[in-house]
Specification:
Radius of gyration: 30 Å
Number of strands: 19
Structural class: alpha+beta
Number of helices: 15
CATH class of the largest domain: Alpha Beta
Largest sheet: 8 strands, mixed
CATH architecture of the largest domain: 2-Layer Sandwich
Number of domains: 4
Distance between the termini: 54 Å
């Protein structure tokens, strides 16, 4: 069944799109100047066979916004290298974008910067880029070397060479005054490579040389200068999706909607954005941005710099704890300007997109299929893990925004039921869970899912009614993946390729896994 493109909101911004199959695996990543126009074009008639096969496998589409098409180009490349979607061409050429390096020698040279597959730059010195326009790197480098009197010899000679006599180098190898001027030439070159004011001055100088060459009918020279000017145009565009930095960084933005926090991050490795993830959690009790960061870095590599959209609570304490854990000084700060601030703003723009869509497409689909009053952003699922009369426990998983919220998971020892009565056990844990939430005045879920059939659902509904609650509640029977709804005799059968069913299955499987693990722990403790 073809994915219904009309069911999702597609932004008109530049960015990348990630097409996923029914298993939520990325099968294609593309870029676009206008995401809406590009993505909709896949669903027009008369597509080629390969495109038709791609469209047939689409179950979801995710978007990441950028500020311009060049950034989308770079991010697309990085994401393809990371995920290697089966419908994308795997790019083996790591020099798709030009990077330039000023070496750290006594009299630095200007070189093409090479890099490994994981993004690490080879060679010492300062690296600049990426420069996406122009295929001939050497012409631009040659012009820059000549314009700024940068030496080309791999080993510094003792005497001046032909480059000096051609006027391309001042000869720092031999002349003291040239040695004194050389750092100024390098500094001016750096300004141009960074795209600052000197770049405009240099561009103006080249234009004057081009016009002069044309007047003198030196058309080859004029053409070479014109090509160089075109390539240097890419220096004027700020590239936020990939820039060079000596240390690893990670960026976090946070947005709040209806007491639920959405966090998105960009992970920088060797100056390259290598990953992006979304997280959701409820602002209940001690849940905070600070707690999220500490939990996140309990399972992720800690970088030296953590850049955030807002200062987390207990910033100094958090820095101290992470520094002790990492073995080096960790800084957390809010960038106020420059490229770093641009990246934070880009993350916040993506969070706004998530909020405007009203949640994951699968959750919207659940609302429509099950006729729910709201999009089920918060789902709680219950299961009984019953191994004989002596080992029976209850478990609950909690999903927010379609993703596991593991800090919200709960486990229950059965207290009032003896024997193997799954219905009564479900009734007990449902009543205990929501009686407590009512007592604490905590946020209630948008949807309750029971692992089981009609009997388990009826037991759960009786407990909810006894508490005076009217919450949406369904059950999912594992054998045929049938969804039972209160007051409906026949179950709802959701097609297996639907992302809504995948979410329910994920919720159910997580609850079962959590319950089985708890049951085994109890058994081991009793055996001891």
């Amino acid at each position: 069944m073809t994915f219904d493109i009309s069911k999702i909101t597609i932004p008109t911004n530049p960015g990348i799109y990630l097409m996923k199959d029914s298993d939520r695996k990325i099968i294609y990543i593309g870029k676009a100047k206008n995401l809406k126009n590009r993505v909709k074009s896949y669903f027009l008639k008369n597509q080629n066979y390969k495109t038709q096969k791609l469209v047939e496998n689409i179950s979801d589409i995710e978007f990441i916004l950028t500020d311009n098409e060049s950034e989308a180009f770079l991010l697309e490349s990085n994401m393809i290298k990371k995920h290697r979607p089966k419908f994308n061409i795997e790019l083996k050429d790591q020099q798709r974008y030009t990077y330039l390096r000023i070496s750290n020698e006594k009299y630095p040279r200007l070189l093409v910067s090479r890099r490994t597959r994981d993004g690490k730059f080879l060679g010492k010195g300062k690296t600049f880029g990426p420069f996406t326009q122009g295929s001939s790197k050497l012409l631009t480098i040659g012009t820059l070397r000549k314009a700024f009197q940068i030496r080309i010899c791999s080993t510094l000679p003792k005497k001046i060479c032909l480059e000096y006599h051609l006027g391309n180098c001042e000869g720092p190898c031999e002349f003291k005054d040239a040695q004194e001027r050389y750092p100024k030439h390098v500094a001016a070159l750096e300004e141009v490579l960074k795209g600052k004011n000197q770049a405009k001055i240099f561009t103006k100088k080249l234009k004057e040389e081009m016009h002069q060459a044309a007047k003198l009918q030196q058309f080859e020279r004029a053409k070479d200068i014109r090509d160089t000017l075109i390539r240097l145009g890419s220096l004027q565009t700020k590239q936020k999706m990939e820039y060079v930095k000596n240390s690893d960084e990670e960026y976090f933005g946070i947005g709040i909607q209806e007491q639920t926090a959405t966090v998105m991050n960009f992970r920088m490795i060797n100056g390259v954005i290598r990953d992006s993830n979304k997280f959701f959690f409820d602002l209940v009790g001690d849940n905070s941005f600070s707690n999220f960061l500490y939990q996140y870095y309990s399972t992720h590599k800690i970088p030296k710099f953590i850049l955030v959209s807002i200062v987390p609570d207990n910033q100094k304490l958090l820095e101290s704890l992470l520094s002790e854990q990492a073995g080096f000084t960790v800084k957390i700060f809010v960038p106020n300007k420059g490229t770093k601030r641009d990246i934070i703003n880009l993350i916040l723009k993506n969070i706004e997109l998530i909020h405007s869509k009203g949640g994951e497409p699968g959750l919207v689909e659940l609302k429509e299929i099950l006729n729910l009053p709201v999009i089920p952003n918060i789902i709680e699922c219950f299961d009984i893990s019953n191994h004989g009369t002596d080992f029976a426990v209850g478990s609950m998983s909690r999903f927010v925004g379609g993703q596991p919220n593991k800090s919200g998971y709960r486990k229950f020892k059965i207290k009032t039921v003896s024997g193997r009565d799954d219905f009564a056990m479900i009734g007990e844990i449902i009543k205990r869970r929501y009686y407590r939430l009512l007592e604490e005045n905590s946020v209630l879920p948008d949807l309750i899912v029971i692992d089981g059939g009609k009997g388990q659902l009826n037991a759960a509904m009786k407990s909810l009614e006894s508490l005076g609650l009217k919450l949406s509640c369904i059950s999912l029977a594992k054998e045929n993946e049938e969804v039972f709804v209160p007051k409906n005799k026949n179950p709802v059968v959701i097609p297996k390729n639907k992302s809504s069913l995948k979410i329910l299955q994920h919720v159910r499987d997580e609850t079962h896994r959590f319950g089985v693990a708890y049951n085994r722990t109890i058994q081991k403790n009793q055996l001891k």
